[in-house]
Structures are given as C-alpha cells and as structure tokens.
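New to this. Help decode both lines:
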Amino acid sequence: MSNIRIYHQSFTVLGNLPAYAEALRAHFARVARPGTEVVMHGMHPRTYQTEYPGNDIRYAYFQTLHSQQFVLGALEAEERGFDAFALMTLPEPSLQEIRSLVDIPVVGYGESAMLTAAMLGQRAGVLLFIAEMAPMVERNVERLGLSGRFAGAHPVGFAFHDVLRGYEDPAPLLERFAAAARGLIARGCEAIIPGEAPLCVLLARHGVTEVDGVPVVDALAATVKMAEAMVDLRRSTGLRPCRTGYFTATPPRARVRELLRFYGIAALGGREG
C-alpha cells in the first residue's frame, strides 16, 4: 500500500514540552501502520507568552483566534503535498471551516474519538482537565448527532500541570484518573474519552485501555487511524467531501490568502514543524 503523510497539528508549543513531544512521537510511531508518517507541528513559539495553553483555551474567543494557526497549517499541508491534516485537540475549533478550505482529508481528535466510542458502547463520556470546555464538547457532540448517546463531559479532578508531572511520576495521576472514570461509569458511561492529548498519550504510555471493563479510547490512535482510512477511501474510491451548502462550499484560495494578509494572520509563519 502506498505511503501516507499526515500533518499533525497540536494546540501546544511542542518545543516547550519536550517530555510530552517525545511521548507523542513514540506513540505515533507505534500506532501508525508501516508506511504512514505523522509529521508533528505545534503552535508558533510565541503563542503563549503570558499564559500556558490551558488558560487560553477555556475561553471560546481565544480558541477561535488561535485556530487561525490551524487554518495556516491545513493550507500548508495541502500545498506541501500531505495526504491528510489531523487536528489533534479535543475542542477542534474551526474544524468545519478548515474542511471547507482544503481538499485533503481533515480529521479531528474529538470527532474521531466520539465516532470510535460509538462503536464500543452505547454511551460515551469525556473526562476533562479543562472543565470550562465542557459546553464546547457538548456542542461538538450535538453537531455529530450523538447527543442521545453522550454521558457528558466531566472534570477529571486534576489540571494540565498535574498531567505534565505525571510524565515523571505517573502512579498518583493514574489512580486519580481511575477514580474519575468510575464516577463517569456510575453515570452510565460505556466508553471513556480522555480530554486532550497530553492525558491521552500518558494513559496509552502506561497501558490504560480500560477501567472496570469500560474501554478508554486512545483518541490519538483513533485520529491517526481515521486519517489513514479517509486517505484509503480517497485513493480507492475517489471519496471527497460535499462542496455544496454554506458550511462546505470552498472559497477562492486567492481571496483566502488576501484576507489572511489583510488581518495580519499570514505573518504567523515560522510555526513549529
């Protein structure tokens, strides 16, 4: 089978999180099939000069603003000949808009996890370390038409910096995750999605695939596999996204570039990669 190159987009500055970046790189190498290359990209190094990512992305406007870097990444991915663009962040801001801009397959972390979870149990739930994002996760689930099979997005009981410390001393955090998972299971959850990639890769690194018989979805792996599947379908059947209607019509690329320059967004070149 032909090789596949996936453009991975993180919501973090990967250079500031070396332990996480290395764990992510190793995990992609393990879950991607032979011949698939996942090329990692982070945010512009100066994106979070005063705040770490989690403080910003608990606000809807900051997510929208930051997501213009994802737009640039998707355009770059298509223009550089990548086969797919993978938005590896749970809230997936601008995911629909990005799909309207490029012709290559575009997959998202939250969406891939929810669609996978729907095949594993009747009701899926999310454990968040950024609790303020719960309404956005719920809205994304509604967009997918899965609200009736959603057990909710609930706090996991620890924060981003606790996750980072878990890369050095994982046992206490894994115990706290299991306790939160049992609370979600008590609400009727049959498939658990770990909120945000740093927690997901930490759990995967330590073999956490289930809690009391309830599967823990490796959302990172699900996103890679979804990208591979969409590329395979494109190549074997010619499958492409809808291009009619307000949300899916593709605007002229020249005008996209013109407006990015007008708003000063095109100056965000030099992102990590």
In short: The longest strand covers residues 4-9.
